[in-house]
Amino acid sequence: MNLRPIPHPRVTFNDRFWAPRIETNRLVTLPIEYEQCRKTGRIGMWTWKPGRPNPPHIFWDSDVAKWLEAAAGSLATHPDRGLERQADAVIEGLAGIQMPDGYLNTHYALVEPEKRWTNLRDGHELYCAGHLMEAAVAYFEATGQRRFLDVMCRYADCIADTFGPRRGQRRGYCGHPEIELALMRLYRATGERRYFELARFFIEERGRQPCYFEVEARARGETPPRRQGGGHEYFQAHAPLREQRDAVGHAVRALYLYSGATDVAAAAGDAGLMAACRRLWRSVTERRMYVTGGAGSSRHGERFTCDYDLPNELAYAETCAAIALVFFAQRMLAAEGNGIYADVLERALYNGVLSGVDLEGRRFFYANPLTAHPVSYAARPGEDKGAHTALDRQEWFGCACCPTNLVRLLASLGQYFYGIGPRALFVHLYAGGEATAEVAGQSVRVTQTTDYPWDGRVRIAVDPARPAAFTVALRIPGWCRAARLEVNGRPVAAASCLKRGYARLNRVWRAGDRIELNLPMPVERIEARPEVRSDGGRIALQRGPLVYCLEEADNGPHLADIALPRDAALTARRQPKLLGGCVTIEGRGCRRATRGWGSTLYRPAASPRVRVGVRAVPYFLWNNRGPGEMRIWIGET
Amino acid sequence: MNLRPIPHPRVTFNDRFWAPRIETNRLVTLPIEYEQCRKTGRIGMWTWKPGRPNPPHIFWDSDVAKWLEAAAGSLATHPDRGLERQADAVIEGLAGIQMPDGYLNTHYALVEPEKRWTNLRDGHELYCAGHLMEAAVAYFEATGQRRFLDVMCRYADCIADTFGPRRGQRRGYCGHPEIELALMRLYRATGERRYFELARFFIEERGRQPCYFEVEARARGETPPRRQGGGHEYFQAHAPLREQRDAVGHAVRALYLYSGATDVAAAAGDAGLMAACRRLWRSVTERRMYVTGGAGSSRHGERFTCDYDLPNELAYAETCAAIALVFFAQRMLAAEGNGIYADVLERALYNGVLSGVDLEGRRFFYANPLTAHPVSYAARPGEDKGAHTALDRQEWFGCACCPTNLVRLLASLGQYFYGIGPRALFVHLYAGGEATAEVAGQSVRVTQTTDYPWDGRVRIAVDPARPAAFTVALRIPGWCRAARLEVNGRPVAAASCLKRGYARLNRVWRAGDRIELNLPMPVERIEARPEVRSDGGRIALQRGPLVYCLEEADNGPHLADIALPRDAALTARRQPKLLGGCVTIEGRGCRRATRGWGSTLYRPAASPRVRVGVRAVPYFLWNNRGPGEMRIWIGET
């Protein structure tokens, strides 16, 4: 299949949902993250000298790289001399510490030069290299300037000389996967096959015996420790990826690895490796994923635990893991053109990713629990807490991966919306705006007019430069049970042309052709399968792609006691003034009165339930009205 | 009020519930704990010499003391020359290391003699002294031998010389309360008022400024650290007890402290201190106690958190904390003669205490969660786990407080059943057996015939040596809503003579008088108040004093998905062969089929519920059929 995305600069938004968010990302988040990087020493770290305080940390190159990638995303759509100068200065700073052999890592160059490549397991060197490569590709594509790309190709060449299967090379790979997918991106940008081969080597070598992490530990004079999570599962280095069956260990590492592996499998046409990726995809999305698209249910090791173990209040569900799931989904979708991948991509994007940043674009969640009870949270010792920080978004984190991942994702969001196949244009996601691409030899403009995700009606104008025969494949989301479709005013039976989640409209398209897609969005009660013990007897509310939650601000405290009768009418209501404009779900639920209990803690169950109005808001909008209780999974009677 | 207990040697059991458990405790648990103490070096620790391995730990004196107290309890009812010789040898070992000034602590005498009294906060010296005092009193009362009692009086005198408000004395107190209640026991056994004064000093001094723990830390050259839980709350030394309003910190420490304070308040007639104890009682039992009588919901610091924060799967609910709640309840009951205290005593005893040991008397729980899911438990990193060890009882623990606390409690269980007041005999708990006591100047024999707690009918024979006027006060348990009462075949309206939880039968009692008490035990659905977020939408099953649970052994896996309709009939069924003989609760519940889901993780809620047979067993009997899922709080539809 191998769908190519329409690059994000050629996808613009003019809708009420994404356009303002992308604007906030560009005008608020991007500058404040620059400022955070500057204040904390990340930007400017290349001038650090031994003996000074605040030495560059091993993560910092990746933070700066992700900011650069976000700046590139912004420049691609909104040229800005000031921003470009800022970015160029950062690039020159980094380029200035590149070693003659191409090596480029601020921490290891300036702080511990003697330790270069001595601890791939923990040092994050190749991880940082990967992020810098991604940024360099993005910057080249945005600005046409080769400078940063050339720097990173030299570094990639240095890495390719150092690591590999040949005599004299190291058979290592990074403790934190990332460089695999970055090398594939560099390969696609430059055509340099060597980068593809290196990515493939990193994927294939991982998990082989003897484990490189033990080899290098012995070389450091250490006895290889047993790591958390048992053996090397934390790093997904416990077995060759081809043999792995369950998503294990640190969730972000796992999902970055699977993303890179999918890239390699697709590029190599390697069915065996692709089958492994599909297996791991199913492990994540069918057994270890929250309804929000969150992944990694334990904060200890930020990791996957076991099938169906998805506690809500203790959920870790790191923002970066939801973003990494978007990456993995994007690649599986490109490789297989199946809507099941887009369904997960959409679920993660609109819920577990977007919850990571507040409406103002200034504060971030690292962990994204599905239930919050701030009073108890404050009273519990640290080790009992599910989330990384307080139950309130924070301005920054010592480990700043999530804010920088969010800013780069939103700065290049357009890339997730369309895919181009042979004589086919795939529409994966819906949002008002415009895109242009070459399809079947023609330049085609696609214009969406919609209020998605608040409304499911989507008008799509398909305007090829000249008439041409190709397929327009429209995703019929998995959550939609009754899609309706018209082309130029004539109904088309969506079911009749539905194939792997896409309604395929195969015809000669001419300028002026109009598609009308209607994806009805009734309020849905969602249940989790019976094995998910945290959700037994409960439902989640979903409308379209959005998962909803109850907040204390709307429903008062003690949300755990609210129940929705199965037959209660639930109404979607437009709220133009609430939370930046949204659709709430309103209905009549029931709860017990807290009055009348006196001081009794337990008593024979005889409390009448009183009827109460219940309002749910989209989960991604929670905690925009101060700290308070929140709950996705609601009792049902 | 000040009810005196009938001492346990004068209370015997011949029922099907307690008699075999006490027998197992005496014949199985007591010897294996001796053997564990011997194997681990605890028994024999007094022969340790510097340079040898396995030096005596600061806790060990308390473990050995609790074993001695249990041995005393056993000897009091079942004289046994072999056991007495074993105990005497232990006593001689300990006595042999007593210093000339009376000081007696194995660790500090042999391992760190220079550190005596330098770290009351962490050293457990006075805690160990307290347990040894309790054992010495018990041993004296059981055997009439003064040897051990004299040793401990000398040590108590040494402590009384060292600590106190006078010039040259230390104004310290123990980081782990226990000595306060022990000194009161020693005071009652010896009449030595000095011990009472010392207990009062420890109670009153605690929490005053400057905090002694900081004073002694500075004396050690340390900067006083901020401890877990913030300040000195962990040790209940953050404020004078009279000013404390919430039960905070380490649960066992808190409940031992409140027990000692209640003893002191009652003995001193100190209404202010008693009011503080009542306040703390209410904090524990009305806001921070599990339905099992478990206390201390966080494993981190084994401590209380905040009101209504009672997670089930993460529950710590240490066995020792439930035992300590029995102690506190016993003292409040003695001081105030109110059935609310006996209700909690009974709740803790039959549920959260008894769950700590298996049917065979060989394996123990340290933590007592209310929900268990062993598969997830095994997959979660250590810090995510609620319980102290695996979800399976263990033979022993490095910190062995719980097994030794259980063995001593069961060895002297009779003391909790009756109270003697002025011209009054109180019956607090019901069990088949016999007791004798002096009431109103007469020797009175009380004989209970009952199958309690499996059945609520209790026949009580009251046989005074000669006719005498006094009150027989029969506890009408809080769980009982329709008690019926007859005296010599004539109905008595229980409600008319009910006062503070006791039906008071005031008459001239003559040999041959017979009371018939009927406490109907329907199966009750229990709800927790709406503020308890972990139990929202759920019920617990209770019958009589017993809280029930579902086990995987009876109901298959995925217990979280089982729901009981509010109107489902629930039947108590005698099971002579199950779990040593018990009453189960059986009914028809519903659950979703796990079939038909394919690989779907979430879907629109449309699953039909299928009717299934549900069986609940008494919670205290869980985990006697191998590891498996368990759940107290069950969904309700």
From the structure above, extract its key features:
17 helices; alpha+beta; homodimer; 10-stranded mixed beta sheet; globular; 637 residues; 35% helix; 7-stranded antiparallel beta sheet
Topology (SSEs and partners):
The structure is a homodimer of 637-residue chains.
Chain A: E1 4-5, E2 11-13, H1 18-39, H2 60-77, H3 81-96, H4 106-111, H5 120-123, H6 125-143, H7 147-162, H8 179-190, H9 193-205, H10 212-219, H11 251-268, H12 271-287, H13 319-336, H14 339-353, E3 371-372, H15 374-379, H16 401-411, E4 418-421, E5 424-427, E6 433-439, E7 442-450, E8 457-464, E9 468-475, E10 484-487, E11 490-492, E12 498-499, E13 502-509, E14 513-518, E15 523-528, E16 538-543, E17 546-551, H17 552-555, E18 563-564, E19 570-575, E20 582-592, E21 602-604, E22 609-618, E23 630-631, E24 634-636
Parallel strand pairs in A: 5-9, 18-24
Antiparallel strand pairs in A: 1-4, 2-6, 3-23, 4-5, 6-7, 7-8, 8-14, 9-13, 10-11, 10-14, 12-13, 15-16, 16-17, 16-24, 17-22, 17-23, 19-20, 20-22
What can you tell me about this protein's structure?
Two copies of one chain form a homodimer. The first copy, chain A, has 637 residues and is an alpha+beta fold. In chain A, 35% of the residues lie in helices and 20% in strands. Chain A contains 17 helices and 24 strands. In chain A, strands 3, 15, 16, 17, 18, 19, 20, 22, 23 and 24 form a ten-stranded mixed β-sheet that branches. In chain A, strand 10 (484-487) and strand 11 form a beta hairpin. The mean pLDDT of chain A is 95. At the A-B interface, helix 12, helix 15, strand 15, strand 16 and strand 21 of A face helix 12, helix 15, strand 15, strand 16 and strand 21 of B.
